[in-house]
Amino acid sequence: MRKILVGFFMCLLMAGMVYAQEGAGMKDTFSVIHSRKSVRNFTGAPVGRTDLDRIIRAGMAAPSAVNAQPWSFVVVTERKKLDELAAGLPYARMLLKAGAAIIVCTDPDKAYDQNRDLAVIDASLAGENILLAIEALGLGGVWTAAYPYADRMNHVRTVLGIPQEVIPLNVTPVGVPTGADQPKDKYKPEKIHWEKW
Question: Domain ranges in the chain?
Fold first, then answer.
């Protein structure tokens, strides 16, 4: 009985050590925010489904007007589709080396008061959460706009079969970064107005 109890407590202790090591390696919120950068250089390595699911869950945790959540996401990992997207998106050529892409979409009919502006704002908030989650996982990503450009939106809709009433807001290439892209310090005190303009 004593050996069983010792074994049990050793398992608990080891599990705690693994948990502590995982927690110690995680970035805090401010580190993630300040280390986020637009990554355009990828190694070509694939991105796992578990990581992609965690990223999408973070997107869905974003706020939305009256909690309407008008967003939807298309996750692409097939090389052929990534290449097809890249062919029609002049500012998303990095898709050729990305391991995946997340297309953030929004449906104005599902937004609060069926308001197009609120639909875009809500989905943009989800898109930022996605970028932060990508950074937190040690991956790289970059926002490439589809909206408001009709030609880009049409290309994304055609390649991915997105309904006409749904807005493909952006295409976010996701991948293992080469390390070439670095964060920028964007803090500008002159942009801050305390108490009044």
Answer: 1-35, 37-178
